[in-house]
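Hello,

Our lab assistant flagged a job as stuck in the queue for most of the afternoon. It eventually completed. Since we weren't sure the result was trustworthy after the delay, we are filing this so someone can double-check. Below is the sequence as submitted and the structure that was eventually returned. Let us know if re-running is recommended.
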Amino acid sequence: MVRWAVELFEFHMHYEPKGPIKHQVYVDFVAKLSSKATQPHGDDFKWVFSMDGFCNQQENGARVILEGPDGLLIKQAMRFSFKANNNQVEYEALIVGMLLARELGAQSLLVKSDSLLVTGQVIGEYQAKDPQLASYLKYVVFLKETFSTF
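-- returned structure --
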């Protein structure tokens, strides 16, 4: 900051902090989401949710993208502080996206995932034999019922 002040001083300019705008940014963000989420839309409207989980020895996490009406785009990256395998991370990402879409008022949700096992279990093609994955699947099925189209 001092270096910038010195450089700006040559041009008879000085730096003035803008002040506390953090709260206004939050207010604007919530207002924008609220107005778009409460707009009426037909059954043919879909929210699109894309997800990808990652898991390695050092860390695990997920990236989610939720696309809504009028170009609304929400991107989220998460890092999990617990040990998990790749399928558990994929389920965590799916649950986060479903909860976010439900919170924003989505009725129809199109989910895109690269996990064949998780998508197969959710649509009923595969069984969840692992008890932890079965717990995840049970919660996803419960959340799935809150959407008119999934």
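-- support follow-up --
The delay was a queue issue, not a problem with the job. The result is valid. The longest strand covers residues 47-55. The beta strands are 47-55, 60-67, 73-80, 109-112.
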